[in-house]
Specification:
By secondary structure, the protein is an alpha/beta fold. Helix content is about 40%, strand content about 15%. The chain contains eleven helices and nine strands.
């Protein structure tokens, strides 16, 4: 298979296993490219990509921009706070105005779940979802799964814990879909107040005891506490959260085995993870950042429909 079964990357839910494997195979090629002295290829020359960010982002935005530049695409950056959206312009008007400028692809982050799907129904360009509300963040899940595969050889049969603020996390949902499609077992860990109701219906295990969860898993993917999405207090204090659900060196040393530590960033050091764990040999956090650029290059290339 040399083409994706989808025209847009709205969510992992809509990808087949073959799609994911093709993205990984293409990522392998681009990873080799970004480790060369000259990191640029002319693959998307004359393709215009607009980065349409209605929500703040640092890492995802930089990662996509870098991926686009490595592929020689023409880039238009759009930030809602400094645009006509702040004057009351609707989403569809904003996008139609941008498309009138002959854009080929749209990378979109939006606070409302379903915004990329809405867009995909109304416009001709390929849409890549860079995170929609608390719904999905597909490229993050792809780079997480790719990083696990790179470190452990395969994702199939591995036990992965996703720890932290599951309720407000789009990364958690995309990771659940991606890991399960690739044959991993998934366990969610966090305070009961941050665990969505009926989440077990997705075929995941739920655990409220961090040590038990770490003894079970091969990989711990630690999520950030998303204080900006929390409209009420879900736990007494950050200190208390760190006490019960924070991962530190002494906790890792108490396990009878080694596990892989991941984090999508940004890290709240000393809350969900301590510095000596984030910077330890267990951690593949910086590998995730590097793989993020290669995965996004692969996704942009495959959705562009270009042939090498």
């Amino acid at each position: 298979m040399s083409a994706l079964s989808v025209k847009h990357l709205i969510g992992i839910k809509y990808l087949t296993i073959d799609d994911i494997e093709l993205i990984f195979k293409t990522t392998d090629s681009f990873k080799e490219v970004i480790n060369r002295p000259i990191k640029k290829v002319p693959t998307l020359r004359d393709t215009t990509v607009v980065n349409l960010f209605f929500e703040n982002s640092t890492r995802t935005r930089i990662s996509f921009e870098l991926a686009e530049k490595r592929l020689s695409a023409d880039i238009v950056n759009f930030s809602a706070s400094s645009s006509s959206v702040s004057k009351g312009e609707t989403l569809i008007d904003t996008v139609n105005n941008i498309l009138a400028m002959k854009v080929d692809m749209v990378v979109m982050r939006h606070p409302s779940p379903g915004a990329p799907m809405f867009l995909a129904r109304h416009i001709n360009a390929s849409i890549i979802n860079a995170g929609d509300g608390t719904h999905e963040h597909p490229t993050q899940a792809l780079l997480d799964a790719y990083s696990i595969r790179e470190k452990l050889g395969t994702v199939k049969g591995k036990k992965v814990c996703i720890i932290g603020d599951i309720k407000h996390s789009r990364v958690a949902l995309s990771n659940i879909y991606c890991l399960q499609k690739l044959g991993a077992e998934v366990m969610l860990v966090g305070p009961p107040t941050l665990m969505p109701t009926y989440i077990e219906a997705l075929g995941v295990k739920v655990e409220y005891n961090l040590k038990k969860a770490l003894e079970w898993c091969d990989v711990a993917n630690v999520l950030r506490i998303q204080l900006e999405r929390q409209d009420i207090k879900y736990f007494p204090s950050l200190r208390e959260y760190a006490l019960y659900f924070g991962i530190n060196k002494s906790l890792l040393d108490s396990l009878k085995k080694e596990i892989v530590i991941m984090h999508p960033g940004p890290i709240n050091r000393g809350v969900e993870i301590s510095s000596d764990v984030a910077d330890s040999e267990h951690s593949i956090i910086l590998n995730q950042v590097e793989n993020g650029v290669a995965v996004r290059m692969a996704t942009l290339f495959l959705l562009s429909g270009r042939k090498e």
